[in-house]
Design goal:
This protein is mostly helical. Helix content is 83%, strand content 0%.
Length: 339
Amino acid sequence: MRDNKVITISLILIVIFIGGVVLKLAQAVLFPFFLAVFLSFIMYPVLDFFTRHRVPKTVSMILLLLITFSVLYLLSMIFYSAGKSFAAELPKYGDKIVASIDSLQQRFVPPANIQPIHWSEQIDLGRIGSLLLSTLGPFLSFVSTLFLVFFFLMFILAGRGKTKEKLKRALPPERNERVLNIIHNIDTQIQKYLIIKAFVSLITGAFVTAVLLGFGVDFAITFGFFAVILNFVPNIGSVFATLFPVTIALLQFDSIWPAVWILVLLTLIQQIMGNVIEPRIMGEGLGLSPLVVLFFLFFWGWLWGLAGMILAVPVAAIIKIVCANIPELKPVAVLMSKD
């Protein structure tokens, strides 16, 4: 028995290792595929709505695909141009940072035996801006693969509804109903999670953008866009979505009070949307453990970089949903849960 357990664990580790290698090497194909799968869950209700109203499926698919392709392309261009302008403007804040640090250094004079640090030589935001652009580059390369996303979406949407018919023919009647119920529950819960998460993220980004534009903060639209993306990362994402614009506000304005008010308002928005609105709509049952979130962020970040970190939490949520609906895997869902 002990030998069997050792063999089983060894095989599981080997499969995980091989799976990680495949995911790493096949990023160029699998990232567009994963993105297409997530988009398909959001688009299914719209496709079903058109079908119920007797719109031909082919016409509905073409319309949805064109809208999706246009939105993805537009968002990619906005993200790229915003990232470029942000990286280009970073050096001008370098002088303000150095001046602030030098002012603090003059107030707290170090002992005579300690050599003062020349911060103007240490801080190079131009180099940071170049690093930012090089980091954004791999993520933005998916613009060139939008046609691949389009291709995958076309086949995923075309196969909508055919899986159930295939399962009816493939499985015996006594197992058919149980498997179909499990698939239906998984499908419904994934749709609910992705649609609500996308909706809440867009509303959060809109509020963040409105606040920053009201105060006249630089890169307000960029930070609003980041707020939408970072909202998919529980707890950690909201912190970064708040700290980045507050830091820019501190450097941009002569007074500290605009940054203080921005901090208060953005924190209020994140708390209300993340801890009040979203749980009420989605339900507490889909909450993920912070440890699970961190693990998936680090793993997918190592695997696919920034693009992997954005997909990490939705992937974790989908795995939890699948495990919760399969009796044999329910313990895994419980371990991944926040409660």
